[in-house]
């Protein structure tokens, strides 16, 4: 990659995956997979385009739009669209690369991709967001389709934005098809889709708790970062199962429980309303049991915790914060965000896992723990293909099954390829990386995307 411009986020994601493959017995048993990794690390296609739109004052505005179509060996490209001023090619390549293996872990027929624009929805009116979405989709519509590439929402893209984009696609292409997921229920959306990533995260951690002999959620103190869709529904499900949620956060600071205080369902409902209005947590002060800490993430301010769930954005747990949550007694860390922990933080967790064995902190990567969102997007695609809508109970049960299978697959793959000593919890990050990679590599090989010298 030395001949390319620096892409720190993508390089981090690549190194995280490659290092776990190198430190397992995978390449020793299957040296030809080194070639597969070389091929899989380059996107099949990158689309970049300008997005010209008009603000409410009549001024012309322009942004950069992207779609990284990374890998289609397992199905149509699948991954979200992110609208945020930090969006660049490195971030979208990292997200698309993660998405390939995350989608593989769901067991559904989906490839990996990611897209978006460096547009900031905050401070924009509904009319300005609509005009941006229309302009963005007019160009993107040339490159996607129900059998080619099926985007979804991500940061800055919720049901409203998906609706604008779907309407534009339908008019531009004269097709009503399952081209986007996260749609409204009246035009092809799926029940449980808004809740899916957060619920799926909790279902995944439930299997971690059970395997480690830590019981259920009742009485557990749970620190959560973020306050968007994933954090909201993870918090609600954790509370429903008997846990005490002690934090939420956003880009400006953190809400942290004071004394016996806790985040309540009423708090979450009020914060949902704030987020719909594109307001920050600084505007929320209704619960006396919570304090707002400006400019902080929650990890070093929550006191004793049992479970840590990063649900905001990438690299939101540093080495120092990882050491802090270990010292605070945390036993489980699972990413609701993509690459929520820095590599240095992961190293802290993995070293603790090896040293303290069954009593150690146990880390689960986002590509496994947060795959519930894209899993239900896949289920939405299946419903669209059949022109049906399943009940919330049907979708929720399928989500539970997918999260159980993702956990079991990562667990068993780690046992197969990663050396461990008696009493040591298996490495979920290594097992999930290897399982997702092998599935994609086999499909690519069988379709002629790579081959070994002897073939």
From TrEMBL:
Domain called Glutamate/phenylalanine/leucine/valine/L-tryptophan dehydrogenase C-terminal: residue spans: 190-448
Binding site for NAD(+): 197, 229
Catalysed reaction equations from the record: L-glutamate + NADP(+) + H2O = 2-oxoglutarate + NH4(+) + NADPH + H(+)
A single cellular component GO annotation: cytosol
GO annotation terms (biological process): glutamate biosynthetic process
InterPro entries according to UniProt: Aminoacid_DH-like_N_sf (IPR046346), Glu/Leu/Phe/Val/Trp_DH (IPR006095), Glu/Leu/Phe/Val/Trp_DH_C (IPR006096), Glu/Leu/Phe/Val/Trp_DH_dimer (IPR006097), Glu/Leu/Phe/Val_DH_AS (IPR033524), Glu_DH (IPR014362), Glu_Leu_Phe_Val_DH (IPR050724), NAD(P)-bd_dom_sf (IPR036291)
The UniProt record lists the keyword Phosphoprotein: no
Keyword set, alphabetical order: Acetylation, NAD, NADP, Nucleotide-binding, Oxidoreductase
Entry binding sites for substrate: 78, 99, 102, 153, 377
Site entry: Important for catalysis: 154
Pfam families referenced in this protein's UniProt entry, alphabetically: ELFV_dehydrog (PF00208), ELFV_dehydrog_N (PF02812)
Residues forming the catalytic site: 114
GO molecular function, one term: nucleotide binding
SUPFAM superfamilies for this protein: Aminoacid dehydrogenase-like, N-terminal domain, NAD(P)-binding Rossmann-fold domains
CDD domains: NAD_bind_2_Glu_DH
Protein family according to the UniProt entry: Belongs to the Glu/Leu/Phe/Val dehydrogenases family.
Assembly and oligomerization: Homohexamer.
Protein name in UniProt: Glutamate dehydrogenase
């Amino acid at each position: 990659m030395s001949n390319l411009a620096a892409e720190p986020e993508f390089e981090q994601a690549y190194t995280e995956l490659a290092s776990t493959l190198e430190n397992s017995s995978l390449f020793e048993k299957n040296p030809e997979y080194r070639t597969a990794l070389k091929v899989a690390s380059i996107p099949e296609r990158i689309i970049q385009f300008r997005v010209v739109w008009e603000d409410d004052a009549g001024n012309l505005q322009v942004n950069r739009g992207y779609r990284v179509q990374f890998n289609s060996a397992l199905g149509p490209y699948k991954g979200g669209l992110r609208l945020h001023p930090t969006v660049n090619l490195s971030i979208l390549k990292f997200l698309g690369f993660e998405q390939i293996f995350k989608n593989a872990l769901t067991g559904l027929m989906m490839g990996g991709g990611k897209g978006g624009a460096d547009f900031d929805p905050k401070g924009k009116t509904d009319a300005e967001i609509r005009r941006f979405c229309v302009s963005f989709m007019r160009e993107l519509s040339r490159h996607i389709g129900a059998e080619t590439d099926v985007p979804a929402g991500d940061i800055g893209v919720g049901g409203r934005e998906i609706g604008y984009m779907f309407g534009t696609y339908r008019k531009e292409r004269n097709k009503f098809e399952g081209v986007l997921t996260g749609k409204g229920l009246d035009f092809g959306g799926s029940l449980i889709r808004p809740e899916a990533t957060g619920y799926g995260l909790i279902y995944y951690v439930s299997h971690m708790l059970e395997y480690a002999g830590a019981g259920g959620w009742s009485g557990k103190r749970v620190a959560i970062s973020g306050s968007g869709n994933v954090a909201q529904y993870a918090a609600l499900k954790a509370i429903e199962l008997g846990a005490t949620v002690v934090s939420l956060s956003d880009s400006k600071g953190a809400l942290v429980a004071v004394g016996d205080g806790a985040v309540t369902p009423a708090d979450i409902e009020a914060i949902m309303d704030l987020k719909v209005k594109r307001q920050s947590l600084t505007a929320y002060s209704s619960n006396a049991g919570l304090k707002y800490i400006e400019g902080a993430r929650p990890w070093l301010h929550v006191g004793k915790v049992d479970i840590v769930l990063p649900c905001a954005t990438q690299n939101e747990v540093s080495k120092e914060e990882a050491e802090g949550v270990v010292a605070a007694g945390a036993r489980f860390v699972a990413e609701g965000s993509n690459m929520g922990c820095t590599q240095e933080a992961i190293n802290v967790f993995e070293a603790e896992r090896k040293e303290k064995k069954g009593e150690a902190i146990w880390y689960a990567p986002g590509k496994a723990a947060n795959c519930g969102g894209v899993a239900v997007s896949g289920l939405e695609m299946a419903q669209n293909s059949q022109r049906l809508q399943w009940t919330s109970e049907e979708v929720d049960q399928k989500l539970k099954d997918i999260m159980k299978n993702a956990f079991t697959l990562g667990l068993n793959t780690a046992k197969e390829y990663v050396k461990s000593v008696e009493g040591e919890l298996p490495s979920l990050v290594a097992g999930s990386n290897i399982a997702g990679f092998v599935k994609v590599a086999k499909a690519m090989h069988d379709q002629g995307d790579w081959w070994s010298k002897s073939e």
